[in-house]
Amino acid sequence: MRTAQQYLDGLRDEREVYYRGERVTDVVGHPELGIAARHAALDFAFAEEAENADLAVTGGHSTYFHVPRDAADLRRRSLLIERATAYGGTLVILVKEIGTDALFALHRVTHGTQGYERIQDYFRRCRDGDLALAVAQTDVKGDRSKGPSAQVDPDLYVRVVERRPDGVVVRGAKIHTSCTPNVDEVIVIPTRALAAGEEDWAIGFAVPVATPGLKLFCSDFLHADPDPWTRPVSSRHKMIETLTVFDDVFVPTERIFLDGDVKRAGRLALEFVEYHRFTAVSYKLPLVDALVGLAIALAEANGISRASHVRDKLVALVGYAETVRGLTHMAAERCRVDEPAGIAYPDPMTTNIAKWTFARDYGKAVEHVIDIAGGLLATGPGGADWRSDEIRPYLEKYLAGAKPAAERMALMNLASDLLAREYAGYQAVLAVHAEGSLEAEKLMIARSYHPGPAVAYARKLAGLEP
After folding, report:
1. What is the mean pLDDT of residues 66-85?
2. Taking a C-beta distance cutoff of 8 angstroms, is the pair 159, 246 a contact?
3. Does residue 223 sit in the same domain as residue 274?
4. Nearest 5°: phi and psi at 341?
5. DSSP string of 304-324?
6. Same structural domain for residues 173 and 82?
7. Of 206, 236, 262, which residue is a domain's last?
8. Both 287 and 348 in a single domain?
9. 463 Cβ partners below 8 Å, 6+ apart?
10. Does the structure show a pLDDT above 70 at 459?
11. How confident is the model at residue 334 (pLDDT cuts 50, 70, 90)?
12. Cβ contacts of residue 320 below 8 Å, gap of 6+?
């Protein structure tokens, strides 16, 4: 296993990264992308701490690479994701979580094909090298009413444009690719089911980030004043998403796991999601816990903790957090095993109910905390004011509540960062769209639920023939 510093040193190469209109030559030394790199390094730092070793290390390797065989393995993986995210200040670290989600799905989907041996070799390389991984799945899609082959521009889904004896050349773009500037490798998988005639788009592979022709265009959504007083979380924790462009990228044969199999392409898209939504609800748990704890602390700081409407909101927040947690645990306990590959996967229906519950009720939970906090979330002073010898005495006098102003404003600033500023908007979009939209989750719930027993029971109670 690598140290955090070894991981950061490994990011200094010829990767082609652009941020705010300029080429970034050093993603670790960059003032903003460096924050994201150091945040990602927490996955390595977490494992280095002795008290985390039993959870973070398995057989001398990162536990993220431990292939789940049963419910206990999935519960342990979920707990690791939850605790590592808490270590990351409510922001998932994701440089090992998402990549291993894809690797497990690839093992299952390629079993019995030529790609299976390749994915096993690649998996061992990633595990033994303790590599950081991103997953590029979501194509830019163009006109969403049309499939890949019907687009005016065929490059709107990543596709093979040339076949060579030693590999293929791919072209196209993926969007919403998390952590790409600060990982070692990018795993690329299909985004949807494909039809006959769309074999060129049925491609799954992996390449190093520094591969020629791979271009990363970073979102600057979280670009903001980095003052740690007003932004106690987002000034230290950041994730970068990219438009990931494959500008005629060569992929060697040994790194191609799926090629031309349209049926397995659809399976891979879905089976990756089975793991990744389980990862999602696991990493949401520190955030919902933070909302509960923050609401309680703010109610005390404002002197309103005995108000009946506040108690109702706190109960609702506790119920929300523990429902998501209970469903996440249940998804592991209800797991199934892909018998040919011998790999366990979380129960799809329960996983999607957990994710749907989190996303559906997130806005209401945020509203409860904002209501308890009050308008200072938006109208409070800045860090320069607080650090001013002339201004601070006035702030300490007039912004005190049931708690001193320093304590009250620390809580307000945390709430503002989580609920009202740039990071809050980021989390709100993640709640609705990350790892699949609300509609995608409802669709999977409907697909996964088998109504036969419930309908038969209702008909029996009604006195109807079965």
Report:
1. 98
2. no
3. no
4. -90, -20
5. -TT-HHHHHHHHHHHHHHHHH
6. yes
7. 262
8. yes
9. none
10. yes
11. very high
12. 288, 357, 361, 364, 365
Residue with structure tokens 């769309």? 198
On whether the CB atoms of residues 187 and 134 are closer than 8 A, the answer is yes
- Buried-state track 181-207, b at ≥16 Cβ within 10 A, e below 16: bbbbbbbbbbbbbbbeebbbbbbbbbb
Task: Indicate yes or no: pTM above 0.70.
Answer: yes
CATH of residue 326's domain is 1.20.140.10
Using alpha carbons, select from 36, 9, 417 the residue that is nearest to residue 236: 36
**pLDDT for position 122:** 98
- Shared domain for 104 and 124, answered yes or no, is yes
Model confidence at 466: pLDDT above 70: no
Express each pLDDT in 86-140 by its tens digit: 999 999 999 999 999 999 999 999 999 999 999 999 999 999 999 999 999 999 9
Closest C-alpha among 8, 27, 7, 28 to residue 19: 27
CB 232 within 8 A of CB 224: no
Q: Which of 244, 262, 280 is the last residue of a domain?
A: 262
Residues 6+ apart with CB under 8 A from 148: 139, 154, 156, 157, 159, 194, 198, 201
Count of C-beta atoms within a 10 Å radius of residue 105: 29
Q: Are 54 and 102 within one domain?
A: yes
Which amino acid makes up residue 291?
Answer: L
Range of the domain at 191: 4-262
d(CA 396, CA 36): 34
Residue 105's closest CA among 79, 83, 135?
135
CB atoms within 10 A of CB 57: 15
| Predicted pLDDT at 465 | 79
Residue 391 clears pLDDT 70, i.e. is over it? yes
| Cβ count near 384 (within 10 Å) | 12
* Positions of E strands within 291-399: 336-338, 343-345
Query: Across the strands, what pairs with 336?
Result: 345
CB atoms within 10 A of CB 399: 17
For strands 336-338 and 214-218, give the pairing.
unpaired
| CB neighbour list of residue 286: distance below 8 Å, 6 or more residues apart | 82, 85, 86, 90
Over range 261-290, report the average pLDDT: 97
Length of the chain in terms of residues written: 466
Residue found under tokens 């497990």: 104
Distance CA 366, CA 360 (A): 12
